[in-house]
Design goal:
13 helices; 7 strands; two-stranded antiparallel sheet; 327 residues; 67% helix; single chain; alpha+beta; five-stranded antiparallel beta sheet
Length: 327
């Protein structure tokens, strides 16, 4: 049985005459713009309604990605993306129920999401930026592996994974400034190999760059309206380089383990899938948790907003009166 929401979106794309990829990306940008209106024009009477629709569109966009993560057997991202649609609808309802006086923390959440989504999907949608991040990540990993004496590796030429096959980026006929066609699973990627030319079963794509983790913190920090830019920059100077360094170590570990223990399996899961989809994911989430705790000392406002956003969930588990939760 096919997933009904995806089928409905596919039918709508066919009626409009666009690809599902284009329609899905349109949901993302439309949702971000509407949330941006809710954040930057929060005093306008229409701000909560724009935000409510924006949450729903963004939730739908991320939900549509869940089928891809099911295909590649990534349980963490399956749960996160599949839960995006109900979460978006719930936030939309919260917006409407508080339309007359939106809580400060809800306004912060609008801005945090907007300024996380826009930078990431700008990089994703502009091929020259996408390829630059991929190349920088791959070369950083290569440098660390060789510096640590873990082998001699080479970064291959940038390639593009198209629906009909792979081509070198230099031979790709698409626009370098705006992505106008759906790409394959790998998108823009660079292969890795040993210095003698022997291929390594690991390639680098945009998702390997750690950009997702960076922009979550960037958006959350930028949206703190009551915080001075000096404090914001201090926090960003701690977060962004730290995430990059940790991500390079993560990538180097995945490459080395996958290349060294080629035949290792655990419950039918190979070394690459185990390190990439399980061990590295949980380690990354734990590192982000620790980083958030460290940031709370610099930006206690961030801590306060997060606790207020989580309060409805805490109230549900504690069995508080629903009427109290809506306030």
């Amino acid at each position: 049985m096919e997933e009904p929401v995806g089928v409905l979106v596919g039918s709508l794309a066919e009626i409009i005459g666009v690809t599902e990829f284009t329609l899905g990306l349109s949901f993302c940008w439309l949702g971000a713009i509407l949330l941006g209106v809710g954040f930057h024009l929060q005093d306008k009477s229409y701000a909560p309604y724009c935000s409510a629709v924006g949450w729903s569109f963004l939730g739908l966009f991320f939900y549509l990605q869940s089928s891809h993560f099911v295909e590649i057997s990534d349980p963490v991202l399956v749960i996160m993306t599949a839960g995006a649609l109900p979460a978006g609808i719930a936030l939309g309802i919260w917006e409407v129920r508080n339309w007359d006086l939106a809580p400060e923390s809800l306004v912060w959440l609008r801005g945090a999401v907007v300024w996380s989504v826009i930078p990431y999907y700008t990089v994703y949608s502009v091929p020259v930026l996408n390829m630059a991040f991929v190349s920088f990540t791959a070369h950083s990993t290569e440098w660390l592996l060789e510096f640590a004496g873990m082998g001699s590796y080479e970064v291959g030429l940038m390639r593009v994974d198209l629906t009909e096959g792979e081509v070198l980026a230099s031979q790709w006929e698409g626009s370098k400034w705006i992505l106008t066609e759906p790409l394959g699973e790998s998108g823009f990627f660079v292969p890795f190999s040993h210095s003698d030319g022997t291929p390594v079963s690991v390639s680098f794509i945009l998702a390997c760059s750690g950009l997702q983790s960076m922009i979550i913190f960037i958006g959350a920090i930028y949206a703190l309206r009551s915080v001075s830019w000096k404090r914001k920059m201090r926090a960003l100077l701690i977060v962004v380089p730290t995430i990059h360094v940790l991500n390079v170590f993560r990538n180097a570990g995945i490459v080395w383990l996958s290349d060294t223990y080629v035949d290792w399996t655990f419950l039918g899961i190979g070394m690459f899938d185990f390190t990439h989809s399980y061990a590295a994911k949980f380690a990354s989430l734990f590192a982000m948790f620790l980083m958030a705790i460290a940031l709370f000392d610099i930006l206690p406002e961030l801590h306060r907003h997060i606790l207020r956003i989580l309060k409805p969930l805490i109230d549900i588990f504690e069995g508080s009166d629903p009427a109290e939760r809506s306030s």
